[in-house]
Every structure is written in structure tokens, then in C-alpha cells.
Write a structure and sequence with these properties.
The structure is a homotetramer of 359-residue chains.
Chain A (H helix, E strand, L loop, with lengths): L3 E2 L4 E5 L6 E7 L9 H11 L17 E2 L3 E2 L2 E2 L4 E6 L21 H8 L15 H19 L2 E9 L2 E2 L10 H5 L8 H16 L6 E8 L13 H10 L4 E6 L2 H4 L4 H4 L3 E4 L2 E4 L7 E2 L2 E2 L4 E7 L9 E4 L5 E4 L10 H24 L3
Helix pairs in contact in A: 1-3, 1-9, 3-9, 6-9
Chain lengths: 359, 359, 359, 359
């Protein structure tokens, strides 16, 4: 009862990693938006496995098909259903694991919650579930871009202990981001990140990372206090992405070490509108966008699936040594960039449409 | 349209800082729970201003009154309305600020969103709004404690750059926490924190901080993938608290620097049930509680209201120097401890009741 | 978990018939609406008992107080809490009934559902619960009137077997309706209705009735297919009012006896816009308003509380004869008129604000 | 934003009449329910066109496919997506109608609401949209039947002015209902109904009708006062079905003509539990099931599409005579029986699962 996100622009995702496919239904999309599969496919392509030597060699073409809600290239205002068939529908690599819950995977918690779980792969806890989010996010982004001029760009700002310099002030684009397979737009840092990822793979291990996102041209006034404050919904959205462990906006955790006189963003006039000289707030005040760029960061843990042997126990508590044999990403952050963008878009478009109710 | 939180245990808060009062309505509370004002008042007392020399000397007794939903000391299963009258209902200190939006306050964004804002104080963006949350959270906590054995304890783990040692493994209680007015249960760190707060006040300045929370005895199986994963709802809940800038669960941002082999929590047998040897997951896997303590941290920025003069502009863009004259907290984290506990309780009780739908 | 109604304009009601009071919180009300208690009180006065010889002599002044969301006579866009204290807070008339569930009351079902119920009166199933709805509806009506020109007028069209002629085509106003204590604007029918009500009272009995409502100037385009079609939400709203047993829109049940060629509403040009020559549709097509008056009828059963002795059994199944001694309405429809109007207003304003999201 | 129904057991439908297909996503279905397409297909078969000489000769096989949420014949507790491809995806019969809104269809209101509408057929306002509801309802029914013993049976109780005798007290089954193509289980009335339908077709006209439904073995305690009372949700559910104009429960409109002493249902002991001697309440008191059969009736207008010429105007207001040429049902009630059952099941299963939150 929680595969739906949003109040007015509502997305419902469905599908398991090894079932017939994955998808989403978008309800509440404004009518008369030009939309076709070609608007959605690019972000799915950025998300799919096998894009570079840094990711899993699994091939998933992830071709989306619009099942409803669009006619002659225009949205009808009715629910937009989208479906991406799974290529690999048969249980293969995972059969042995059924009695050995994988450490730091959701095998055990799904079993505890539902008394059953998908026999192959992560089922609904797999990153494959995010296909529906990315598809829905692409629609949200189109509305944001065309009707509000909003731009969302995310990138990899850390892999393991390799950190990129702060680029949030730069006019970063998605092509800048995609210039390197790590999706870090700082070339020097990108090289070191690539090395860190390959070293992890070499060691049959994995590594975590951080994604930074900037949302530009968000007008002042979006976000719904008190429980749907913009940062609160962004936090929910980001922590709903598999493998995430943290979210911070603006100054974040570092801001907690500052004094008020260092942290406050004084106002100034910017081209006829009130703006702020600094942006430690990260584009929100009191849960409402203030017209400055919305800047946030999301922490991803290292993927739980590693080739290295792990000492653990099976469901009866008998000691076992587990070695994963499948093909897996040593680091998810490059592929998670479009997922972060999608979830940000879902939060923003919902806030935008709700704000319209006050028109 | 966003002052309601929860799916089954639903809380709606209301009230502005200088209006007639603040409160909440709790819908979906199970019937036959023993409940009176005495169950709610203690957490309100921990939240109220004027508790120690470290906080604002404003006196607010914050006495809660149950208006409905309880008869003869038992809940009826019907909505529970609670009201706390405001002592100070008249606009006083703030009149001059109406044309000068206070830096890093929500004055300007409320104006941008609604075209109007409360003339005194923060209105709905004030920390006073959290009175309703704390009252509702006290009910949630009672259910969690009595029906599920769940215990929630939060404390101040950092003030400015003063950090307490990691106490998440200790059997911390609320009396431990309340032993020092900083609400840091480590005596040495507490002393240094108190000094940091007083130094900030001395400098007519303010300081941020971090709160750590632990939820014990949460059974495996709570949390609703994919959008209402337990960590996602906790993140939303925490980022909906005024002045928060970050949330992390388990290993958090630091976890992103680890390798999978260092980060994974191997399983082990714990008193007849499957547990984990380490808890970098922070008590959740795939959005579902795994039976280990749920551990998270919340970053608070320094309060925006400072006595120090600030250079900013008024709504017409004319340079002004702003000096706050009111009585304000130099650091909110000691008083925010019960708010964090309340929001955690609201997330957990909702997850618990929803999990019942699968019974 | 169901005392909240609406998606964008959300009302949460609270309070039992013999507790401290009843009220509502309205979330999502547009900002800058002129609002004071004086806008709300008149509909509460039309709802309260003791208005005429036809109703119960119980005196309840039902004075509403705004607790939040309004400052200097304008809404702030924040939740509007309203409270009406109960005059009679002590259990009196009802004590004997605790072991004898009253036939066709909700005593037994509340007990079955919650394992507990209010010891006095109907608690939450009492018509007193509708005070909060009427207060919220008055705000909704003000928005509809001032921002959209919408007018809602309901009246009593039947009491027992006394039926008024069809007045839906007449330009009926609330003063027309209030001209007679029955709230039937046809004087001859009103007289016969009054006689029927007094005869029922004389016989220590009660009688049912029907309310007809017309919503004028609703623009085409309101209503959210497929599950929140305008007629679907109206039906929910009306059947949520105590004592209702039926709802029909436009041609209603009688329409099921017609042929399509008799039932269809042909289009015509009306002052520059497309309208229909007839209105058997009742102002909606496919769940969406079509610009014609929205016309519907609501059936109310006779009040369950009667002085006449009733043979029934107690909770152990022992035969008993029950005689109500309190002061009760022999017919609820005159007082239910503002409740029907309020619920219609809540449905319409929510649909109006949602339609704005497509702007 | 309104194609989702339910709080805990949530159904989202999608699809237009002439697009790629129609379907639904069910979120919140309990895990470990045995489920396959074979559980769903029978009700779809009862709904599809072309079942008998009384309905449209259009052939739609309506074969459902489960896309997610089920593995090895068991539900996983995750969203269940279902898809039924449309056979006829091309615009054909309707092209001329684009500038002539069909009287009493939703062409004009969809245009007014969305500024666009499906170019062929009714799009989302078509009865074809109900395919997703029936599929979801079949799952709901399976839960109700297997876990709670609840049985839902609906039948045609009137066609035009032909009325069947009251059969609500009889132990009617679906085979009784399906014994005659009218789905009226009274053979004599069924014959007259068939004649009425064929006469309407002969006259290139259509006819309305009424469906009666009984839900047996619903335990006392389901339904969520005050806005999600069981009858309120049933009313919403039924009025959300295309072509419905009225809903009544128990005594309904006729009950409004009775006195309380005639209408009240006295209690009695029934096999160890409290029951009522009569059932004018229709199985609910105060919005909560009371353990008696839930009995309600739904009025359907005559289908708007008729062969008979109709005088109307086009979008510019120019008089035109419209003659429908397609193949259409002269009466929808026989095929609407499984739709009514599906919507009742969706209401009941949601109420059942919510009631579990109080366990």
C-alpha cells in the first residue's frame, strides 16, 4: 500500500526484478502535454546496466511502452501506464540463496514482513524497481521544463573516499555529467573515482558514494508545510531509493557546526526579485522554495552483493560462507544519477501542481 | 493540505505561534488505550521553552487539554483532539520586521507562497507548531510501548563542533538524557556543549547541533516499500521539523566511504531469532525493520534569530541592518529531542498498524 | 482514520455528543479569504436543535470559535481549527441503555467495531458530529460563492409520504427555504409536512423525509474521473451524513425506467456556451460537471429514537421493552438542510481546487 | 489524480476504450494468497460484450494477464499489475462525432475539463474502463471469500418499468443469476425484461435498469466513520460506475416514508450473536456493518448511444441530427452485474483490512 507517491501528480510503480516486467502508472498528469516514448527512453538508458566497463555487464535494453493516457502524441489528462518487459524472467543465479539470507540485502526483512519473497533476485527491493520511477520522472521533468523552466541536474560527487570539489555553483549540464562514465563532471576526480570502482571490482568488493543534485529555476513558493515541506518530501523521495543511507540539503550536517551569523543567508536584490547572497539554506526556507537553486546530497552505501566470501548464517542459524557469483555493479552511484533526478522531479512537479490550487 | 501525517494513525496539527493556540487531531488511534493528559504533558514539558539557562527565558507552560476521543480514561477509537492555548497571543516584538524579511527565516517564503503571513513571529513556521506533534507523538509512544514494547530515546550528540562519543550501543534512557540540560548523556561532552551554547549566546549568536535517536525492540517487518520505506518516512518526518538540514540512518554519509565487505552486516543467531553482528544498516533493510535497533541522526542548523546585527535588504531591496531583540534560543537541539522522539513515534506506530493489515 | 474528507481542501472533524465539544480542522483553504466566526455561525444556527416547535426542545447555542489559520480577518493558508463546546457534557438520560443496544442506532456496531463506545448518547454517531462539517462547509461555501459564483440551496422535498412539487427549476433561495420551519419552500406542502411531523410526535413516533439540493453556476469541468467523479463524491458525502439511506442525481431511480430517447439531454446554445435543453443528467456527465445545475436528492430514515415502547433484547439476548425518555427530533430533515449544503460545498470546493492543478 | 480507490487495498485503473489496452494495479493485497489469471478471468467474461443476443455483438475476449506481484501462484504482497489488451485499437465508427458532442455522453465534459479527449469512443468515460475494476474486484472477492467467508451476489432487479419481486431474502447464487441472459434470477420477470430490452433495440432505443446486491457473512465492525462509513464508500463506489444515477441501502428512499416504529430493526439472538429481526438498515448502522446482509440497489440510466435520430447542436451551436451507427448495448444492467460486485468487493476488502489495524 505504498507503491504510490504524490498527492496530485501520483505515481504507482509495480514489478519485480525477475517477473514479467516493471512499470508505472502516472495519474494526475496535466492534459495536452506532448509526450511519446522518446521523451522517456533517454533517462531509462542512463539508468540501465551495462553502460560502461564500470557497471555490471548484464544487458537490459529496458524499452518502455506507453499503454494508456496518450493519443496522437498528447497526454489526455488520464492515467499514463508504462511498461518495460524484463529480459531475464527466469530464476537462475539465486536459487541457492533461498535459505541463506544475503547480508545487508532485503531477503530476510521481506520474508519477515510478507512471509514470502520473490524466489529470484531482490524482487521488489531490487534496483530494477526504479525503472518505473525513472519513466514517471521523465514525464515530470518534461512538465517542469516546459511549463516552469525548471532544470534538474545530478552527478556523482563522491565514490568511496574520493570526493569531487564542490560544483554546485557551476552551470552543470547532463552532457557535462555524462562526459565520463562515472558521471562525475570533474575530470580529475572522475579518473580517481573510476580507479576506485575498478579497484573494488578487482577485490571482488564494492564501494559506496554520494550524489549531489541541483534544481534550478524553481520559483519561490513550492512546498507544503508542515509535513510535506519541500525538503521533507525530497528526503522521503531520496531515502526511498534502494541503498540510500543519508540526505542533506544546503549546508546539511556541516551546517550544524556553524554559528547563525555564519549560516544565515542575507537577502539581496537579484534582477528585480529578492534573492539571497549565499545559499546555505539549499533553496528552501520553512519547507518552501525561495527561488534559489535547490541543492541536496544523497549518500549511497556500497552494494551488498560482493564476490568476496562472507561469513554469515542460514535461516536455521548454521554458519555458512556466502560467495556471490552473479554479475553485479561494484558501485551504483553512476547509474543512480537519473533515479535521483527522477525522484526530485516527482517531488517538484507535485509541489508545483498543488501550488496551483491557490491560484 | 499538508498538515496531516500518516496513513492509518493520522495526525493533523494546527495553530500559529501567536494565535489562540496550537494543537492536533489524532485519527486512527486504537480504542481502549488508557490515556489522559498526564500521558502527554511530560513530553510537552521537555519541549517547552525556559527549561534551563541554556534556552530562551520565555515562559510557556504549554498545558494540553484533551477535547475529544477519550472517555473515562480510555480512547474510544474516535479522533482525539488536543489543544494547548498560547500564553502570548499579542504581536509585540516583531512588528518592525514586517517589511524586512528575516534572513534564513520563512517570512519571505510564506509571503511568496500564500501572499500573506502571520504578522507576529513565525506563525506556522515557528517551532511552536511542533507542540501538536509532540502531543500526538506521546500517544503514539504509549501504543508502541504498551502494545509492542518499543522504546525510543533521542539525545544531543553534537553542538556546533563539540561531538559526543558514539553512545548508540549503550542502554540509554530518558533520565540519562535529562540528567544534563544539554540533553547530552555524556557528562564531559555535555559540559563542553553547555559552554559552546553559552558562548554563542554571549556573542549574541547561535549554534547548530545534531540529535541521535535509537528505537529499540522494533520487530522485524515494519515499513512499507517502496515509497513508505521506514527510513523514507523517518527522513520525511525529521526533515519536516523546523531547522533540520540532514538525516542519516545507520552508517549514513560515512557509510558511503566504506567497501561492501566492511559495510555488510552478517547474520547471526540472537536468542532464537536471526539478527546481525553489526548494525551499519541502522535497523532497516530494503525499507523494512530487521529487528535490530533503528539508529538515525538529524542535523539542525543554528537558529536564524540572532542578536548580532545582520546586513540584509528589505522587501524593496533597500539595505538595512537587522538586530533581533526578542528572547530566543541560542541552540534548539536540547528542546528538539522530544520532537525527534515524537516524529519517530508517529512513523513507527503508523507502520505497526499498517503491518497489522496483513495479519 | 476516516474523519478526514477531501484531497486538497481537507476537513477533519472531531468530537463526541457528550464530550467537551465538537469541531473541525480545515487544511488547504486558500489564503487571503476574508473569514470570521460570523461567516460560520449562521449555518450552525440553522443546524442547531430547538429552532422551532417541530424539533427537539434541547437548547444548544453552538457558538463556534476559530482557533487558528485566520489573522486580522483573513485566512493565512494554514489549517483553520474550529471548536464548539458542548453545553451538556454530563451523561444523564442514557445511563440505562448501556446494556440495551438501541434498535437502529449505532450502539451495537460501535461496540462491535471498537470494543468500547461513548457511555452517553451517540458519541461520534450522533448528529452532533455534523457541527464540524457545517462549520467547514460554511468556509467552503464562502470560497465557492466569492471566487466561483456558485450557489447551493437545499430544502425539504418530502416528509413521510407528503411530497412537495418539483421545485428544482425555480430560483429558490435560502430565505424561501427558511420561510417555513419545515424548510419546505412550497407553502401548501410545508403545512402538510408540519402536520405529519406533529402527528408523529403526538404518536411518540418519528418520520423520515427527503432533501433536494441544487448547486447553481458550477462551471463545466469539475469532478475527477474515475473514482472521484462528482456524483460519486457527492454520494459518499451524503451517505456519510447520519440517518441517510439513499442518494440520487438528476433523473435518479426514476431515470432507470426511461428509454434513452426520453432520457438524453440534447445540447443547445445558452448565452454563448453549450448547454442542455433538459437536465436529466443532473448537471454531470461522466463524473464531470457540465455547466447545468447540479440536482440531487437524499433520503433520510425516520429517527431511531422514539418514545413508543419497542420490544428488543439486551446484550445477553434477554427480551426487554425499551422506551426512550429524552427529548428528540421526530423528524431530522429540517435541521439536516444545512448539513446537506455543507457536504455539497466540501465536495465542490475540493473539485474546484483540484481542477486548478490543470491551469 | 482520481483513478485510485481504497486506503489499504488500493486499486489504480488505467486505459482508454480504443488505446492499447486497459488494466489495473492493486497495491496492498495481502501476501500468500493463491492467485492466477484463472481467478480473474470469469468475472471479466461475465462483463465482456457479446455474451448474449441481449447485448452488443461486439466481440472482445478481454484476456487478462498478470504482470507483477504473483510468483508460483502466490501473491508476494507487492503491487499486482494486470493488463487486458484492446482488440479494437483503431478509431473507426466515431470520427464524425468529434465536432458533435453526443447528448448525455461525456464528450463535452471531458473537452471542458481537459481541453482534449480521446478521438474514438468514450476514452476513459467508456464502460471499457471498468475492466480494470472487475479484475481488481476478483482479487478482492477471493480474499473476502477465503479469509472472511463473505459472499457477494448482484442481479438485475429492474429493466425499464419491469421489476422483479424482492429476492434479497433468498439464498441467491451467481449460477441462479446467470441462468438467464438478463441476469435476473426470477424467471418470469427475466422473460419480460428480455422482451423489454429487445423492444428497445427494435426501436433503435435503449432502456435503463436497476441492480440489487447482497453481501452475506460480513462480520459486524467493518466501515470507518465518519466519512468512510460503509454505506458512504459503497455509494461512492457505485456512483463511480458509468451510467449510474442512484444508490440506496436497506430501506432506501422508500424508508423515508416510514415511521420510526415501522423502520427500526429490533434486536434478537441469532445463533449466539446479536442480530436483528428485520433488515431495513441494510446491514449497516452508523456506517458500520452489523452482521446482517448488506443490501443495496443501484440505478442505471438508459445508455446514451441510440440509433434513433436525435436533434442536438454541434460545438458551434449549429442544429444537427445525430444517428449512432455503431453496435451498442440497448441495456447495460446485465453486463454491469459483475461491475457492481467488483466495486462492492473493493469497498469491503478495504474496510476489512483497515479493521485489522485495531487487532
Amino acid at each position: 500500500m505504498s507503491s504510490t507517491f504524490g498527492t496530485v501528480f501520483r505515481v504507482t510503480t509495480f514489478g519485480e526484478s525477475h517477473g514479467r516486467g516493471v512499470g508505472a502508472v502516472v495519474d494526475g498528469c496535466p492534459p495536452r502535454l506532448a509526450l511519446s516514448e522518446a521523451d522517456i527512453q533517454p533517462q531509462l538508458d542512463r539508468r540501465r546496466p551495462g553502460q560502461s566497463a564500470l557497471s555490471t555487464p548484464r544487458e537490459e535494453s529496458d524499452t518502455v511502452r506507453l499503454l494508456s493516457g496518450v493519443e496522437n502524441g498528447l497526454t489526455l489528462g488520464t492515467p499514463i501506464a508504462m511498461f518495460v518487459p524484463n529480459k531475464d524472467q527466469r530464476p537462475e543465479d539465486y536459487s541457492a540463496m533461498s535459505r541463506i539470507p544475503r547480508p545487508s540485502h532485503a531477503d530476510w526483512t521481506y520474508e519477515a514482513k510478507y512471509g514470502i519473497r520473490a524466489s529470484s533476485g531482490g524482487g521488489r527491493s531490487s534496483a530494477r524497481e526504479t525503472v518505473g520511477r525513472v519513466a514517471a520522472g521523465a514525464i515530470a521533468e518534461k512538465i517542469l521544463r516546459e511549463r516552469f523552466g525548471v532544470e534538474i541536474v545530478a552527478w556523482v560527487s563522491a565514490v568511496g573516499s574520493v570526493e569531487a570539489p564542490d560544483l554546485t555553483g557551476n552551470p552543470m549540464t547532463r552532457s557535462d555529467v555524462d562526459a565520463h562514465p562515472t558521471r562525475c563532471p570533474d575530470p580529475a576526480a572522475a579518473e580517481r573515482m573510476a580507479a576506485a570502482i575498478l579497484a573494488a571490482r578487482q577485490a571482488s568488493d564494492s564501494t559506496g558514494g554520494i550524489i549531489t543534485a541541483v534544481c534550478r529555476n524553481v520559483p519561490a513558493g513550492w512546498g507544503e508545510p508542515v509535513f510535506d515541506k519541500l525538503e521533507a518530501r525530497l528526503a522521503q523521495a531520496m531515502l526511498s531509493i534502494p541503498a540510500t543511507k543519508g540526505f542533506e540539503i544546503g549546508s546539511g550536517f556541516a551546517g550544524s557546526r556553524l554559528r547563525g551569523s555564519e549560516h544565515n543567508d542575507p537577502f539581496t536584490m537579484k534582477g528585480g526579485r529578492l534573492g539571497t547572497l549565499t545559499n546555505r539554506s539549499g533553496g528552501v526556507q520553512g519547507g518552501i522554495s525561495n527561488g534559489e537553486p535547490i541543492v541536496f546530497r544523497v549518500a549511497f552505501k556500497p552494494p551488498a552483493t560482493i564476490g568476496k566470501p562472507q561469513s554469515t548464517v542460514d535461516v536455521e542459524g548454521r554458519p555458512v560462507v556466502l560467495e556471490a557469483s552473479g554479475r553485479h555493479d561494484p558501485c551504483v552511484v553512476p547509474r543512480a544519477v537519473p533515479i535521483v533526478e527522477a525522484m526530485a522531479a516527482l517531488v517538484l512537479v507535485d509541489a508545483a501542481l498543488i501550488q496551483n490550487t491557490r491560484a
